[in-house]
Amino acid sequence: MKIGLEIHVQLPTASKMFCSCPTTDAPAPNTHVCPTCLGMPGSRPVLNRKVLEYGIMLAKMLGCTVADTTWFSRKTYFYPDMSKSVQITQYDNPVGEGGVYYLDSGKPIRITRIHVEEDPGKTKRVGDLSSLIDYNRSGIPLAEIVTEPDLSTPAEARSFLGQLIEDIRYVIDLPGDGERSIRCDCNISVGKERCEVKNVTGLKNVERALTFEVVRQTKILKAGGKIERETRRFDEERGVTVSVRKKEFEADYGYIDEPDLGIFHLKEMSDRIKIKESPQKMAVRISAEYGIDKKMARQLISTSADLASLFESAAREFGTKDAVKWIAGPVSSNWKTMESLGISPEGIVPIVREHCGGKITDTECGIRLKSYMTGKEPEEIAGSSGDLDKIIAGYLDSNPSVVSDYAKNPKAANKAIGAVMKQSGGKYQSSEVVEAVKRIIESRM
Question: Model's pTM, two decimal places?
Fold first, then answer.
């Protein structure tokens, strides 16, 4: 089985790719349109500079070689959702080529190319023989990321896409639900010939569509049939793919250079653009530098990049053990509460510094941190924490092997966590119990 993806990312520009029409949600169909994005005679496109900047940022994130020069092509597009019958895209010289992206498992996924192009409009079927076209989406800028067929299973494709979306959202500040800002064309072959499932939205649907295709193609081959090269669509309600048309070959699109746009020189712009470290690369680096497992590193980063930065600062000043104990423990558990209350993380480090300097005990440190992060009075935290600490201490006194087991495998704490949750009758939040159990176990090591 071979799977390759063509991922279309809607770029977060304020206006469309070749005109000044807004990219925000329109009040009604066909209201955010103009002669340029509708391709009316006499109109000429003018490139939105931000589109190239975002394309370069993504190319760098994916490890692609950024082109020194690039230009655009007209792709013959005889479908109603592109009113001018051509789509302005990149063909010969994309923004970037030849990258590689690593899964959490370490497996490399080769990136063939990344190019920028305009989105077509949106078709809405209103009956067996009727459709309506909304051109509000026509001309919205997209970056298309094309992978080599290096993915091996539908589950792996879903994992790759989820990880990639997280990185893209962080690097180019993609707003809202990044998953819904991305559409995916899924290419899959079980035998020699491949099929393409167009415009699948959502991680779950990508896995569902690919899984259906695995079963469908396998059944055809086992029955002695032949897989037809075709384009299919995914019916979300029924969970099946449906044939749309025979798959075109590149020559069928009749690419020609776009005469109204000319050549763009990217080297100076590329040299000037600096990108943020992606969550995937950050996790690999933090894991290697501070000796924590990659899962913990990714958990820190997925909670917040600011939390990961705080962990690094604490690890450099106090050592990895205390950074894990406090930042990856109680601070991580209460980070969302801090964000919702608008509490700055600046006050956390001085509290941990006092503990590491021997001025306050583990219990006092935990109480002061919780008080600072939740806005509750220390006395209120102390009463609750004191009772919980007694329950945990009693359990560990009766089961001392948990401490030695935890030193070999942190998952050994789960037994104590479950027992304490049961004994306390659900009085405490699970995150609070997890945090306290690990803190007390580590204080006995």
Answer: 0.80
